[in-house]
């Protein structure tokens, strides 16, 4: 844990947070953040580490071992930036068998709703593999920036080729508006089912 301080600082800078903003998210003072980053405080309790990982929108492994272990799900929040932009997250490789209907080349990231966040089509405990893209490739579920917030919408093309967006409880799809932007395609989804 000798390199924990520099990792906290690196992840904070990648998340574009100053010490005061990170401190507010974690529930500590900005002086405490300074002490953590400098190494003056070497022991950080588990609850604070979890809160720190959530505030930095990164897996706990990124704090503890620099993320060299297997990729952990990233917390998906409605606020920008996208979780893979705010951390040094590693992508995952999906076996072809998991996505037979949609071949996808490029990065994929494993995401799950952050605690307290709710999304259409993605419940607490669900996991989704998302592939960052701003291009419509095929109908399906997409992570969309809508009016400055990240949401999940079913997207397809209308009769004249325009993109149509539909929420889980929407009776009808809405056409593209200038405040919408495709962010990622959901290429695989695993539902949480209690045993």
From TrEMBL:
<dbReference type="InterPro" id="IPR001387">
    <property type="entry name" value="Cro/C1-type_HTH"/>
</dbReference>
<dbReference type="Pfam" id="PF01381">
    <property type="entry name" value="HTH_3"/>
</dbReference>
<protein>
    <submittedName>
        <fullName>Helix-turn-helix domain-containing protein</fullName>
    </submittedName>
</protein>
<dbReference type="GO" id="GO:0003677">
    <property type="term" value="F:DNA binding"/>
</dbReference>
<feature type="domain" description="HTH cro/C1-type">
    <location>
        <begin position="8"/>
        <end position="63"/>
    </location>
</feature>
<dbReference type="InterPro" id="IPR010982">
    <property type="entry name" value="Lambda_DNA-bd_dom_sf"/>
</dbReference>
């Amino acid at each position: 844990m000798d390199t924990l301080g520099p990792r906290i600082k690196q992840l904070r800078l990648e998340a574009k947070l100053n010490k005061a903003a990170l401190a507010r998210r974690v529930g500590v003072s900005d002086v405490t953040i300074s002490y953590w980053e400098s190494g003056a405080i070497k022991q950080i309790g588990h609850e604070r580490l979890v809160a720190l990982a959530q505030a930095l929108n990164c897996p706990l492994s990124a704090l503890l071992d620099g993320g060299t272990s297997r990729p952990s799900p990233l917390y998906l929040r409605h606020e920008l930036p996208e979780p893979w932009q705010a951390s040094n997250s590693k992508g995952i490789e999906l076996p072809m068998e998991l996505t037979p209907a949609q071949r996808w080349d490029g990065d994929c990231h494993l995401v799950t709703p952050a605690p307290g966040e709710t999304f259409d089509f993605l419940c607490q405990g669900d996991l989704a593999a998302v592939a960052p893209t701003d291009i419509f490739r095929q109908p399906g579920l997409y992570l969309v920036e809508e009016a400055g917030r990240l949401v999940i919408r079913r997207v397809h093309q209308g009769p004249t080729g325009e993109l149509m967006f539909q929420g889980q409880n929407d009776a009808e799809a809405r056409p593209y508006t200038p405040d919408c932007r495709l962010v990622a395609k959901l290429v695989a989804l695993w539902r949480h089912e209690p045993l």
